[in-house]
Description:
By secondary structure, this protein is an alpha+beta fold. It contains 5 helices and 16 strands.
Amino acid sequence: MIKLGMLALALVVAGCGGSVGEGTSPSPTPSTPPLQAVVATAISDQCAPCLVVGKDRRLPLGILNRDGVPVADATVRAQVSLVPPGNASPQPLGPAVDAPYKGDLLEGKGVYVMHQTFTQPGIYQVVVEARKGGDSAVTVAHFQVVASDPGLDIGASAPASHNKLASQVSDISTIDTGVPPDDMHYTTIADALAAHHALVIFFGSPGFCQTKTCAPEVNVVKVLEAKYRAKGVDFVHIETYKGGRPDANKTVSDEFDQWKLTSDPWVFVVDKQGKVAAKYDGPVTAGEIDPDVARVAS
């Protein structure tokens, strides 16, 4: 079962990836800036928001207005710094850089993406300058960088999950809550791995996604499917909740547990050797994922 209430509230409000749990928007105050930044990543409910030490890590930022509603197509620049223990001054990792908006097919719930190399774990901050129309603000968001991935790291063996197929269920909504459902229920992850096929897996609940980003993310994956399925890449959709609809305990599917997921949505790319080649949490565009799929398809 996914633990509830562990994710920072701002991520749920932003609709930028979140734990499978409840969230309510805080009331704005007169001192609330017109544009506010949040770090929009939730790789684990044990450290949210957080990233993993490594080169060129994707750092997604959500920009919210005073009411906690995501703001699209703003101009955003950001600078990341390590926050040392005690009262020492933050140590910039580099100059401020542009963080362009990534929102294709995401229905206004996209994020602003920058890339940053992290050589050590610790607490970090990102100073974000956002401008749109007559509104502008500089806000600071904090996040954690951990030494190792608490989930399945890049290069890990993909679990051979035996997900149910459309041909095996009488009610498609038990394995796909989208309206209409997609067509990514024709093979199991286990069978695709056994056949040494490259694989793209979407984990999420279009009908019950807390952050309302799962349904838009399905459309992103469909774009990739149209391009790469004929080239031998298999596509699989795994619902968040067991039986499709969340029960009183919000019991997640067996596959979510097998893949060590505590939030949704996620997109995983697996190579022909059955290794995790790439993974993305929260809203991500087809353009960002495409190079990874092209690499494993070749």
